[in-house]
Amino acid sequence: MTRRLLLLSAAALLTGCGHSQNVDPMQQVGSDPVLPEPSEELIAAVGVPKIIGWKPGETPQVPAGFHIEPMATGLSNPRTVYPLANGDILVVETERVGSEPVDRPKDPIRDFIMSMAHGGGAKETSGSAGKPQRITLLRDADGDGKPELKTVLVDHLNSPFGAALVGGDLYVANTDAIVRYPFTPGQTRIAARPQKVIDLPGGLIDHHWTKSLVASPDGSKLYVGVGSNSNVQERGPEAETNRAAIWEVDPKTRSRRIFASGLRNPNGLTFYPGSNTLWTVVNERDEIGPNLVPDYMTSVRDGAFYGWPYSYYGQHVDPRVRPQRPDLVRAAIPPDYALSSHVAALGLTFYTGSTFPAQFRGGAFVGEHGSWNRTQYNGYRVVFIRFVGGKPVGKPMTFVAGFLTPDGEAHGRPVGVAVDRTGALIIADDVGNTVWRVTYTGGNARRTTA
Fold first, then answer.
1. Per-residue pLDDT averaged across 385-395, rounded?
2. In the chain, what's the furthest Cα-to-Cα distance?
3. pTM for this entry
4. CB atoms within 10 A of CB 280
């Protein structure tokens, strides 16, 4: 009861004072989303479900013709799933360690609400020290989705998120550095000490701590997402040095450059199959209304600027940012595909398997972790977006649902998504502490738009 009262009281304090933005979320998906006028919130509107977890036998919902079951349970905040060619699945279990200094009056209440979103309470707003920071290995040699082995591959990391295997090296993106371990598929434990490849922006203030990681198709470069250190640069430009960007890293020379910028919080980095085109999902800014700004999925152009913090969705100016930069606004390009506002997209994978129906091949699955900056929930699902000629088309299909109950409580929240060697879809559910596996069992896949 105390928890419930605290949550309701905090939510009441955080009610926005701007005018309403009456937009159907389905008008905010695709290549040309509806963008209402910004409604600046002095204190952010908040809606966060209570976390109740999954009871034995409970699962999310998938379309007709598909089957979902847990591949692993009892995990600790699994965020990223990384399948290996031999059938092993690496699961990154992680949370942000430490807490940011308070520099805005609303931060303590907002942070309390956000801790609720991750299944915590008031005692957890001081950080996540002591929680597992590791990569767990699931061995499913026969491909039946029931691992014969679950073991810790490597431990004592620093808020890891991304992972990439290149040759005999496993690269891990901690929140403050990319590190490298010698690794041969088949190993069940890494005993070697990590070798630092390059530092990443971290430190005491580390607002967007998740660092997504992918290797180029030829393995010569690494690409890492580095989110902003604030919502809209309220901590000043110095705190944003080399942030809100995707870095290109040469692991041999340990050199790096900014590949693309103006991306508030890029995650789910992956290359379109058979190409050198990098794609990402991006969490856009908060606190200018429940229907601004749509999170998005986009191809990433070398050298491009995507607007943050000065503008959004191309050249729509954010009036809160001072001083303005009209030169950068003119250079800002719009993303390829809107996902609707505040869905918190964190995972992206393209379907490269052959066991799902033909309509799924080459399309994108997106893990939408779910909103907090709106009172009507948005996201909390995995969606599928069809691609034609390497470009997204049509409306998203809700592919995995049921993370929210009809009463607005959360069993779990999807994050990373990946396709294993059998063609199954693998989903990390962080607050549900589960890795889910979706297979096709036959029949007609019923299409349901998001």
1. 98
2. 59
3. 0.91
4. 26
- Whether the CB-CB separation of 217 and 247 falls below 8 Å is answered with no
- pLDDT tens profile 58-92: 999 999 999 999 999 999 999 999 999 999 999 99
Per residue in 156-175, is it b (16+ CB within 10 Å) or e — as a string? ebbbbbbbbbbeebbbbbbb
Instruction: Give CA separation, 84 vs 163, 167, 278, 347, in Å.
Output: 11, 12, 20, 17
C-alpha span between 30 and 281 (Å, rounded): 13
Distance separating the N- and C-terminal Cα atoms of the chain: 34
Q: 2-19+39-440 is classed in which CATH architecture?
A: 6 Propeller (2.120)
Tokens of 423: 């063609």
Cβ-based neighbours of 272, under 8 Å, separated by 6 or more: 279, 299, 350, 387, 390
Residues 6+ apart with CB under 8 A from 363: 350, 351, 384, 385, 386, 387
- What are the domain boundaries of the chain? 2-19+39-440
pLDDT in tens, 316-372: 999 999 999 999 999 999 999 999 999 999 999 999 999 999 999 999 999 999 999
The encoded tokens of residue 191 equal: 């005993």
- If phi > 0 it is left, if psi is from -120 to 50 it is alpha, else beta; for residue 446 that is beta
The Cα 425–Cα 399 span in angstroms is 11
* Assigned token pair, 383: 């969606």
Beta carbons of 204 and 100 less than 8 angstroms apart: yes
